[in-house]
Amino acid sequence: CEHSRFSLERAKVQSASKEEGYDDMDWTSDVETYPPWLRFHLGISRWELYNRKDPNLAQLTHYLATQRILGAVQKTGGTQLKLLISFPNHGQALLKPMKQSRDTETDVNLFYFSDFERHNAEISAFHLDRLLGFNRIPPVVGRLMNVTADIREKTTDHKVSRTFFTSPAGNVCFYGQCEYYCSTEHPVCGRPHLLEVSLAAILPDLSLAPRRSWRSPWRRSYSRTKLAQWEKNPNYCDSVKQTPPYSQGTRLVDLIDMAVLDFLMSNMDRHHYETFEKFGNETFLLHLDNGRAFGRHSQDEPSILAPLQQCCRIRRSTLLRLRLLALPDFRLSDVMRESLAQDPLADAAPLLSEAHLSALDRRLAAVLQVVHTCQEKHTDVIHDDLDRYDQDSLTDRNTKQ
Amino acid sequence: CEHSRFSLERAKVQSASKEEGYDDMDWTSDVETYPPWLRFHLGISRWELYNRKDPNLAQLTHYLATQRILGAVQKTGGTQLKLLISFPNHGQALLKPMKQSRDTETDVNLFYFSDFERHNAEISAFHLDRLLGFNRIPPVVGRLMNVTADIREKTTDHKVSRTFFTSPAGNVCFYGQCEYYCSTEHPVCGRPHLLEVSLAAILPDLSLAPRRSWRSPWRRSYSRTKLAQWEKNPNYCDSVKQTPPYSQGTRLVDLIDMAVLDFLMSNMDRHHYETFEKFGNETFLLHLDNGRAFGRHSQDEPSILAPLQQCCRIRRSTLLRLRLLALPDFRLSDVMRESLAQDPLADAAPLLSEAHLSALDRRLAAVLQVVHTCQEKHTDVIHDDLDRYDQDSLTDRNTKQ
User: Fold this and answer.
1) Distance from the CA of A70 to the CA of which of A42, A321, B219, B263 falls in 20 to 30 A?
2) pTM of the shown model
3) Where do transmembrane segments lie in this chain (chains A, B) (predicted)?
């Protein structure tokens, strides 16, 4: 069975959770009574983070969007401010705050590594990844929070609390402690208390489900002047193809899936990706940390497609899905608009402007064009990951969408 | 005579300048052959920096706007990037670069001490100060520079040159070394080489004309939380009036002139002002450093008028000028628009948007309203600085403008 359950047996979860002090939870009850975050953890499989038909998905995002907030501490790692939020029932979420108006385009003179993170990029990336059929991004939902009641009065983290202040406009602001943009000059501010944030479901604790971090072979140089190897060598993929784990299994086409996702949303900041250690090399890639996507709609960044363009390989299932989303009836911009409209923050304003949505269509056409060019030169472009049954079910699923 | 010449005798200038290596200058020739910057220095009087009818004013700004650039080094002091530019004939100018689009309003959550400096604020402040009849700001002019040819290739300053880079958009950028906003995240960028800057005439060297820096009694706290004395005590002016140098002469009404200027252009950053030491306490106040003016047009900042509102004093000449500029035929916004249109940068786009210009009219009415309220309560509001002759000549001058 392809969808083998994530083998965090319930007993193991229970004992570990008890050690962590979760002993008020009723472990004798049925899975249906578990909180949504735990059902999400138990539903992780070798091939995807969640099943798109699982009703728990909606329950999880509803949980994140509505549960009372018990605590907020700064999350270390990364260069910009993010908070770890705790809920009743031991749920947690990763919070990224809105720092600029939703439609502010990245300054043309800023490098990808200096760009602000965007809360709506985190939300939109989750929707896009799901619509592409990947299911490799932990669920993310938008929420209008009260910075005073939900953060200032709840946090026990001095690094956060000591940076609160009231701005000249009378708004409650804070900035925390981090490498970039954590200063009075770059505050996170409520209006006067209300702040839009993204809340991402947290993955199982690393002690229960250790992960491995992989440096992307197509990582950028993170330098103002240096070029990466893949930018200088058009035959770069030849050596990647011969290097484990890319020389075997689906790792290379998984990476190309990720490149397609990143190109569509113009994310240049994919320096690493992660996998669950226990699944070894035959498993899906986690698409974590998408805050720098959707920074520019007026331009595309073809270099993000380098893995596809240089390797000329793509999963059949991905290609079929892309072709479907290029059809007038299933246009990517339309399904994204519809999907994003489900998010609680969409009531205030669309999470992606029309300019960003139509950039998706334009970029999708560009991906298909690269595949087409590949097919003119090579015969082994399509990686056939579908048997007859899968193809039927995919067609079935698509037309019902 | 009120307009006593600045007694930097020519001989003194000559000898000092020779010591500084200016010995290739023809000191035997007539004043008319001196470079404009030197004539500007020699024209400084006890009561004003320049005479508005002096034809050298136009020559000086033309000089700054067109002369070949010989060098550029970073100017120390202050918190943001500025450069000292050198021209042939030993002229110099203080350069402030354009860092954001001209109409970007200051973020409502930024404090006055975190605001960016604006090149168009420096230019506009000079025009406004002149139209108000103060003549207390060194002439400033806009210029479209080539960052590569005029700065990168000319600078000998390693602090500047080592920060040059080419941005993702292919623009030539740099950021220098300073306390705030000197980083890759806040670059100064050409398009791809052309950059708008303001160039301010430099005052006579401190060795020739030492200046005294005075802390403004109405200085803000420069703290996110603390209030200054004047913000807490409505009778604050009573103590200022009794404290030298404000207890004598025109210092208090000079300060109020400055407050009027600052309120009109919404400059909250007037922590100090300077005077020429040799003129003692009976002299005008220099209105230097206006880069944080004109940051917001949609709101006024009444606290800037505190000196006028708390002391209820104003020069008659200032009041007459303000009343004139409130008349339909001499409306401040109209004369500013016309005056700013003379600047070389106005060809590309107006230096102040219509929103900023109409804010000037609105704020002017607010100043007159404060004076009116003062006059209802006090009889000594008007400081009479005009004799009969002056009043005639003022009226004469105004109607001819």
Assistant:
1) A42
2) 0.85
3) none
By C-alpha distance, which of A273, A265, A289, A271 is closest to A367? A265
Q: What is the mean pLDDT of residues B63-83?
A: 92
Each residue's pLDDT tens digit, A194-236: 999 999 999 999 999 999 999 999 999 999 999 999 999 999 9
Residues of B within 8 A of A97 (CB-CB) are none
Is it true that the peptide bond before A192 is cis, omega within 30 degrees of 0? yes
Question: A300 Cβ partners below 8 Å, 6+ apart?
Answer: A263, A266, A359, A362, A363, A366
**CA pair distance B138, A313, nearest whole angstrom:** 65
The helix (H) or strand (E) run that includes residue A348 is none
H or E element, residue B253: helix B251-265
| Interstrand relation of B172-174 and B188-189 (parallel, antiparallel or unpaired) | antiparallel
Any idea which residue has 């705050």 for tokens? Answer: A97
Return the biggest CA–CA distance within chain A.
64
Q: Is the pLDDT of residue A144 over 50?
A: yes
Residue range B260-294, pLDDT digits in tens:
999 999 999 999 999 999 999 999 999 999 999 99
Q: What is the pLDDT of residue B105?
A: 87
A 221-240 residues with CB < 8 A to B: 224-225
Catalytic residue flag (residue B269) = yes
Give the CA count within 13 Å in the CB-facing half-sphere of A194: 6
Tell me how far apart the alpha carbons of residues B385 and B317 are, in angstroms, rounded to a whole number.
Answer: 7
**Burial, B242: exposed, middle or buried (Cβ in 10 Å; 0-12, 13-18, 19+)?**
exposed
Q: How far apart are CA B30 and CA B333, in angstroms?
A: 40
Report CA-CA distances (Å) from A223 to A88, A227, B150. 43, 8, 26
Q: What integer pLDDT is reported at residue A29 of this predicted model?
A: 59
Is A274 labeled as ligand-binding?
yes
DSSP state of A149: I
pLDDT recorded at residue A101:
85
Cα distances from A385 to residues A238, A281, A382, A388, in angstroms, run 22, 16, 9, 10
| Active-site hit among B269, B361, B387, B392 | B269
**Chain A residues within an 8 Å CB radius of B225:** 165
**Between β-strands A83-86 and A188-189, what pairing exists: parallel, antiparallel or unpaired?**
unpaired
Residue of B80, B104, B109 best to disrupt the A interface, most CBs of A under 10 A: B109
Residue B347 contacts A, CB cutoff 8 Å: no
List the structure tokens of B374: 């003062």
CA distance linking residue A254 with residue A136, whole number of Å: 11
* A132 alpha carbon, distance to own chain's centre: 12
Q: What is the pLDDT of residue B395?
A: 52
Element (H, E) at A318: helix A316-324
Q: What is the pLDDT of residue A30?
A: 73
A203 is in an annotated binding site: yes
The answer to whether residue B390 scores a pLDDT higher than 80 is no
Question: CB contacts < 8 Å between A and B, how many?
Answer: 52
Nearest CB among B114, B173, B181 relative to A109 is that of B173
Instruction: Give residue B104's pLDDT.
Output: 85
Tell whether the model's pLDDT for residue B387 goes beyond 80.
Answer: no
The radius of gyration of chain B from alpha carbons, rounded to an integer in Å, stands at: 21
Contact B109 A171 (CB under 8 A): yes
Residue A86: which H helix or E strand, with range?
Answer: strand A83-86
ipTM above 0.85, yes or no: no
A268 inside 8 A of chain B by CB: no
Residues A362-384, mean pLDDT to the nearest whole number: 97
Query: How much of chain A, in percent, has pLDDT values that exceed 70?
Result: 89
Over residues B204-223, the mean pLDDT reads 97
